[in-house]
């Protein structure tokens, strides 16, 4: 997909993950990149089945190719114990969002980690639903532009997404509400969602309004959601008047802005939060990969016991 030289260069400098240079001690070797004292081997093959992946615990499928079952199973055929897909995939055994439904991972070998916005939305909906019962709601993600959008006007399948990404706010779609229905089945069909792509390169936001079965006071809502968010392991909380650039490289799936929470008569709750759609999601990929590996090892151990 790109040369080792370019991978090394983009490891040293990032326009979105950090300011200034990153790791300075990055060397390009024959078929690997060395960062500090650790060498990371690289392979280039049109079909992963031509590689020996028998020493690979979890294979991260991040190509963005159509995730057919045949395609994502190739890493298993090559010897990997499990596959984690960095996007929505009907072909996966299950879709897992940390902080929402990770308990279902079981013996699954092909897992989808959903999307960055779903990782932000699902844990938030879970803590709200557990506290106050979500009846229904509407979410808008104010999302930074991505590589799928052009830098100058160019034809795309969606006329709005054909426009220059850095020059306009672009109303468009998101699949996050549909994925929430997979992750939290009892909320399927209760949440609608839209997206607005905005001219920033990193960090996005969620603006969620939900109708509740139990109507809290404003102070109760802030106190209860803060407690549940900080106990979730993936949600953060801030009382400070921050802007998007302040949230770059935050590892949380979502950082809720306490002062932005409001409660309207009739049980309408509004919650606003920030998420680094690159860094935060990449962090969740590593977390879920570790979880998948732990379950894979446990199931492998059980198989050995049963076969003895």
From TrEMBL:
Q: Name one GO molecular function term.
A: NAD binding
Q: Which UniProt keywords apply?
A: NAD, Nucleotide-binding, Oxidoreductase, Plasmid
Q: Which residues bind NAD(+)?
A: 86, 277
Question: Where's the active site on this chain?
Answer: 116
Q: Which InterPro entries match?
A: GlycerAld/Erythrose_P_DH, GlycerAld_3-P_DH_AS, GlycerAld_3-P_DH_cat, GlycerAld_3-P_DH_NAD(P)-bd, NAD(P)-bd_dom_sf
Q: What residues does the record give for site: Activates thiol group during catalysis? A: 143
Domain (Glyceraldehyde 3-phosphate dehydrogenase NAD(P) binding) spans: 4-116
Q: Which residues form a coiled coil?
A: none
User: Could you identify this protein by its name?
Assistant: Glyceraldehyde-3-phosphate dehydrogenase, type I
User: Species lineage, top-down?
Assistant: Bacteria, Pseudomonadati, Pseudomonadota, Alphaproteobacteria, Hyphomicrobiales
């Amino acid at each position: 997909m790109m040369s080792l030289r370019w991978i090394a260069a983009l490891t040293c400098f990032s326009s979105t993950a950090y300011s200034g240079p990153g790791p300075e001690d990055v060397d390009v070797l024959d078929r690997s990149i060395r960062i500090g004292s650790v060498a990371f081997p690289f392979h280039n093959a049109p079909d992963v089945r031509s590689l020996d992946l028998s020493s690979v615990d979890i294979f991260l499928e991040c190509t963005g190719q159509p995730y057919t079952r045949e395609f994502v199973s190739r890493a298993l055929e090559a010897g990997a114990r499990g596959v984690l897909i960095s996007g929505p995939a009907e072909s996966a055994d299950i879709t897992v969002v940390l902080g929402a439904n990770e308990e279902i991972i079981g013996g699954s070998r092909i897992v989808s980690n959903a999307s960055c916005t779903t990782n932000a939305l699902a844990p938030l909906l879970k803590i709200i639903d557990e506290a106050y019962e979500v009846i229904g709601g509407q979410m808008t993600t104010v999302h930074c532009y991505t590589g799928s959008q052009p830098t100058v006007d160019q034809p795309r399948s969606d006329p709005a997404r054909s426009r220059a990404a850095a020059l306009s706010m672009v109303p468009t779609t998101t699949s996050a509400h549909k994925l929430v229905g997979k992750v939290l089945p009892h909320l399927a069909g209760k949440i609608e969602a839209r997206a607005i792509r905005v001219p920033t390169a990193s960090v996005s936001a969620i603006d969620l309004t939900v109708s509740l079965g139990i109507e809290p006071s404003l102070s109760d809502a802030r106190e209860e959601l803060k407690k549940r968010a900080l106990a979730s392991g993936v949600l953060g909380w801030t009382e400070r008047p921050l802007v998007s650039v302040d949230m770059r490289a935050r590892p949380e799936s979502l950082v809720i802005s306490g002062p932005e929470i409001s409660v309207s008569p009739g049980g309408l709750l509004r919650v606003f939060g920030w998420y680094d759609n690159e860094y935060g999601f990449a962090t969740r990929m590593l977390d879920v990969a570790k979880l998948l590996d732990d379950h894979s090892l446990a199931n492998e151990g059980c198989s050995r016991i049963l076969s003895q």
